[in-house]
Amino acid sequence: MRITTRHTVRTVQTLCVTVTAALVATGCGRSADSGPGNDAPAKIDAGKAKGTVVMWSLGDPDENLKALAKKFEQENPDADVKITAVPWSAAHDKLTTAVAGGNTPDLSMVGSTWMAEMAAMNAFQATPTSIKSSDFYPGQWDTTKYKNTSYGIPFIADTTAVYYRTDLTTKAGIKGALAGDRDGYLKDLKAIQATAGKQNPKLRHAAGLVMGFNSWIFWLPMVWQQGGDIYDAKTGKFTFDTPEAAKALEDYASVPKQGLAPTDRADNVQDFQDGLTATYQEGAWAGGTFHRDSPQLDGKWKTMPLPYTKQPAGFAGGTDLAVFKEAENPDAAWKFARFLTEPANLAAYSKVTGTLPPAPQAWSEGKLTEDENMKAYEEQLKVSKAPPAITTWQQIADAIDSELEKLALGKATVAEVQKSLQSKATSIGTGR
Asked: What is the residue range of 63's domain?
């Protein structure tokens, strides 16, 4: 699981899917005595877990997850955890089909932007009150919520930070990280760009640009940094037509407009490794990629929190754990989910997988910020925010991606993009 901008991979945040009207209308065949947003919290019995727990993990077979399952079984001798890996490319359809047919596992990983959609299908049990939201970063906990009710537990956090090539930025006279305010950051990018073909012969652009697929992940925090948002949950209305959204669009377009970033769908990760770009915003997975694919760059790149305008903000995504209403062994499933999200286990899992834990205590117990390049991610998780918990979010995200591309290519103005987004989002609506 990771944030990605490469079109060949569909990840947790943005697999392009839509629940069929039939599934939504029928509520997957369940009775109406409870419903999304009105569910009473599940309860976890005292004592050890017993019986078989069937869990679906997402992605490749996860030996580290299986190792934690073995530890859980040792602590709960009468429990047996069976984990089946489901490829990300098939996960969404497999989950919704299982919900519709009443043939779900007990427990599954669920992509954070799928939570609202599947909660609206009456798929999940509400999170037990014994599992405290205060144990997790607020933005990560919000990824589990639908209509103010939590339907899972954060397991893997995902957010972005800025990577910068110190060997390239120092030649532009920048000592240490780039400026943390957006105006100063833009000034630094211009200074880096001035070295292209001169002090930095291979350099083409000061920054990478995410355009098209998944670009909403990188633009939406700019709105939050302005103190605004694109959706008002209280009124149920979209707010793309605000001054804050306009300023965020201007900020997004300013980098390519001034020739500081490419607009040709370049592979930003590869260009960063090749020295063609000096800075790039990406998820934590990229650090492992750089170390594996370009070990000669070790010590020549660092990370920093996102530059911001009025207030710091970032994107909160990742993978949650959810227990299904059709679970055959819900008590043991909740106990295993609770076990997996204990700080010590989150820290251990993070260390061996390179993922980000969603709980502050896991960071301190695992001493994860001893790695200097992880500090930026810890800072971002403190201020990150989840996208709107609405069932039509993927359609809204696709519309944002399309309009941002027009803006970056100079095919539409800020005013035109604002008007189009407000109109499209209003027309799409919020679903259930």
From this structure: 21-159+317-379
The closest of 145, 146, 187, 188 to 168, measured between CA atoms, is: 188
422: enclosing H helix or E strand = helix 414-428
CATH of the domain at 359: 3.40.190.10
Domain count for the chain: 2
Return the residue matching tokens 């002090």: 199
d(CA 248, CA 225): 8
Cα–Cα distance, 152 to 4 (Å, whole number): 24
Stated pTM of the model: 0.91
pLDDT along the chain (432 residues), means of 10: 43 35 33 68 96 97 97 98 96 96 97 96 97 98 97 98 98 97 98 97 96 93 98 96 98 96 90 97 93 94 97 97 98 98 97 96 95 96 97 96 96 98 98 82
Same domain, 128 and 250: no
Say yes or no: 255 and 268 in one domain. yes
How many Å apart are CA 227 and CA 237, to the nearest integer?
Answer: 17
Tokens of 182: 């957006």
Q: Which residue has the tokens 């999304």?
A: 36
Domain check: are 290 and 217 in the same one? Answer: yes
